[in-house]
């Protein structure tokens, strides 16, 4: 039987997923398949590299250290331009990009885990 973890979106509700993931890891339940939307995709990306109790604990520590401004900085002019259709976004993406590049683990050709390589080619 395949075990799938389906992680929903919902901004800061992604931090709540960590308790569920930790409980599953402590019960030795690991996913064969991970599906995520929005913040669930971010948590799923981490989970794909570190589904053990220690790895999920590291993700919990990361969530506790973040503020909204770290991920979605408020820039009123950018928001207004986005609302008027003059930009493709309401919130700048640099905070989320920095978070992913600095903390997400990715698999390289030599099959070792590399930190801080997400999004680079």
The amount of helix comes to 40-55%
Shape: elongated
* Poorly predicted spans: 116-121
Q: What percentage of amino acids are in beta strands? A: 5-15%
The largest pleated sheet is described as: 2 strands, parallel
Overall pLDDT, averaged? 82
Q: What labels would you give this structure?
A:
single chain, 121 residues, mainly alpha, two-stranded parallel sheet, two-stranded antiparallel sheet, 6 helices, 12% strand, disordered C terminus
Topology readout:
Layout: E1 4-7, H1 14-26, E2 33-36, H2 39-49, H3 53-65, H4 68-71, H5 76-83, H6 94-103, E3 105-107, E4 113-115
Parallel strand pairs: 1-2
Antiparallel strand pairs: 3-4
Helix pairs in contact: 1-3
Can I get a quick summary?
It contains six helices and four strands.
How is this structure best described in words?
The protein is mostly helical and 121 residues long. 49% of the residues lie in helices and 12% in strands. The chain has helices spanning 14-26, 39-49, 53-65, 68-71, 76-83, 94-103; strands at residues 4-7, 33-36, 105-107, 113-115. The strands form 2 sheets. It has a two-stranded parallel sheet with strand order 1-2. It has a two-stranded antiparallel sheet with strand order 3-4. Helix 1 (14-26) packs antiparallel against helix 3. The longest helix has 13 residues, at 14-26. The radius of gyration is 16 Å and the shape is elongated. The N and C termini lie far apart (35 Å).
């Amino acid at each position: 039987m395949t075990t799938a973890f389906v992680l929903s979106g919902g901004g800061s509700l992604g931090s709540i997923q960590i308790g569920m993931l930790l409980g599953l890891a402590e019960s030795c339940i690991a996913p064969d398949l991970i599906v995520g939307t929005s913040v669930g995709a971010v948590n799923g990306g981490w989970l794909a590299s570190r589904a053990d109790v220690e790895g999920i604990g590291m993700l919990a520590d990361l969530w506790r250290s973040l503020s909204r401004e770290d991920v979605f900085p408020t820039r009123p002019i950018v928001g207004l331009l986005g609302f008027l259709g003059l930009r493709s976004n309401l919130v700048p993406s640099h905070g989320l990009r920095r978070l992913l590049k600095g903390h997400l683990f990715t698999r390289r050709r030599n099959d070792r885990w590399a930190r801080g390589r997400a999004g680079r080619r």
